[in-house]
Specification:
- By secondary structure, the chain is mainly alpha-helical.
- The strands form 2 sheets. A two-stranded antiparallel ribbon has the order 1-2. Strands 3-4 form a two-stranded antiparallel ribbon.
- α2 packs parallel to α4, α6 packs parallel to α8 and α19 runs antiparallel to α20.
- The radius of gyration is 24 Å and the shape is globular.
Length: about 525
């Protein structure tokens, strides 16, 4: 079994099932091998079942019946893939199709600020010594018909944001499938931690108005939207950062905070090898002084000049402000545009997109082509993605990916065709959380890893197969999937009772890898 050892105490039936499924995986470690070069597009077969399966599992979370039928009717997997890209860009410019009971995550920002304020007031009015049951808001998780208790406004907003992500990844009527994947990618790239106190009510709004809205637009607009959103301002404490000049003048007890400036360069744009110094971090922090929250404004953002550090700054050799007309808030916007369009950023973003959609170690020639397009197009993510989908590396069967727990949870909902079953959502949510990939819940700014080295472990495999067998119990068969399974997998599936077959489909290498 490729060196895997099962955990002691597993039920014998589950252990036998796991042994059988692992035996079907064959060279399961193969996706971990680095890919250093890619073949010409003309040498790659982009027709037939393998190409169809690849397209639908890379560009969506998995084959829902309707989407699979649409792909098959197209007859050209690459054309279908490019059409999905166009559809995702179009959908990103439209309002999300939120289920009515989840709509409050997209309320105007002043309304969300007001809900958070009312929770603070409600909690302050609770008599001293009275215990608040902090889990009451979770007892009916994913069912939000009742008006939320003001005591649990923030927790309810978090739960609704999670529910929307599950609805988006599993239901094509809620979200265009590729846009759901792009939203996950960008939320993770510009990660916020939804359990940090003041961030909590804004997580869903951030996902919609930052990650989703700019998913296939200009990268600099995406960075600017993230920088000015209350969720990011709160998460990395930028809202507290003020000029040392104002502190010395007795106007404020706070001082300079470098958190956002550091993560903007290290994670959001240039990367740790991007050529910046600690002095650049401090200069950038000075540039962003005065960027803070505004509970009453529609954007949730304001620039306060008296908290801003005046004078010239230098960022990686660039003079900021560049002119007398760009002082104040425009200093920060100038810095973001410079960083967002830097060659190091183009390389880093291109690599991360290729790692997410192509392989853990994508071919350098693909990354270089994506980088070139990024720089030539002014950071147009749509154009960068188009290069990737037209490249042989995307279609090369040697380039495999391993599903993260969240990806696998969403794929399970789609394969079982249960996009509106909120009990199944709860199962998917629970599995993803215990597997270490709780939705929107990574504490540090780097976001979740999505490579096989992180998730491909014996314990994780056992948990994954256990989840697959549980969530698929008594599920109806999807015979439309069988043409995409290998002969050994089909044989193992058909040897099971009909009510157990979908569990074997979910646990197969065809679903665990993509």
């Amino acid at each position: 079994m490729n060196g895997f050892q099962l955990k002691p105490g597993l039920p014998s039936q589950l252990a036998l099932v796991i042994c059988l499924l692992l035996s079907l995986w064959g060279c399961a470690q193969k996706p971990l091998a680095p890919q250093t070069a890619s073949l010409p597009l003309s040498s790659i077969q982009i027709q037939g079942a393998a190409a169809e399966w690849r397209a639908i599992n890379r560009l969506t979370y998995g084959p829902s019946p309707a989407l699979l039928a649409d792909l098959k009717s197209n007859g050209q997997p690459k054309n279908w893939a490019l059409a999905q890209l166009d559809a995702a860009r179009k959908a990103s410019l439209e309002a999300p199709k939120l289920p009515p009971d989840l709509a409050s995550i997209n309320d105007p920002l002043p309304t969300i600020f007001d809900g958070a304020r009312k929770e603070r007031e409600a909690r302050a009015s609770v008599p001293a010594g009275t215990r608040i049951n902090e889990f009451v808001a979770n007892e009916k998780r994913f069912h939000f018909q009742e008006e939320p208790d003001p005591l649990f406004y923030n927790r309810t907003q978090v739960n609704k944001a999670i529910a929307w992500r599950l609805a988006s990844c599993s239901n094509d009527d809620v979200e265009q499938p590729l846009l759901a994947r792009m939203t996950e990618f960008w939320f993770n790239h510009f990660n916020i931690y939804q359990q940090k106190g003041p961030v909590r009510p804004f997580a869903g709004h951030y996902a919609i108005h930052v990650a989703r809205a700019h998913a296939l637009g200009k990268f600099e607009d995406l960075v600017l939207a993230s920088a000015k959103h209350p969720a990011m301002l709160y998460y990395l404490d930028q809202w507290l950062s003020v000029s040392p000049q104002s502190v010395r003048a007795g106007q404020n007890s706070r001082g300079l905070n470098e958190n956002y400036a550091r993560e903007l360069m290290e994670l959001h744009t240039l990367g740790v090898q991007g050529g910046y110094t600690q002095n650049d971090v401090r200069e950038l922090a000075r540039i962003f002084t005065g960027w803070t929250i505004s509970p009453r404004s529609d954007s949730g953002f304001q620039f306060v000049m008296r908290l801003h550090e005046s004078g010239n700054k230098s960022l990686m050799g660039q003079s900021i402000p560049s002119s007398a007309a760009s002082i104040g808030m425009t200093e920060g916007e100038q810095a973001i545009r410079f960083l967002a369009n830097h060659p190091a950023t183009a390389q880093r973003v291109s690599r991360r997109l290729a790692e997410y959609f192509v392989a853990d170690s994508p071919p350098q020639d693909l990354i270089d082509l994506m980088e070139k397009t990024f720089l030539a197009s002014g950071g147009d993510i749509y154009q960068v993605m188009k290069v990737m989908l037209n490249h042989a590396a995307f279609w090369d069967p040697e380039n495999k990916l391993y599903r993260t727990p969240y990806d696998f949870a969403c794929a399970s909902l789609r394969v079982l065709n249960v996009p509106q079953d909120r009990f199944k959502w709860l199962q998917a949510f629970g599995y993803s959380a215990v597997a270490g990939h709780a939705i929107q819940n990574w504490q540090t700014p780097d976001g979740y890893s999505f490579n096989a080295n992180t998730w491909f472990t014996p314990e994780a495999l056992t948990r994954r197969i256990d989840f697959a067998l549980n969530i698929s119990r008594n599920a109806g068969e999807r015979s439309d999937l069988y043409p995409y399974l290998g002969d050994n997998t089909k044989k193992a599936v058909m040897n099971q009772a009909p009510q157990q077959r979908m569990g074997f489909v979910l646990g197969s290498s065809e679903m665990v890898f993509k």
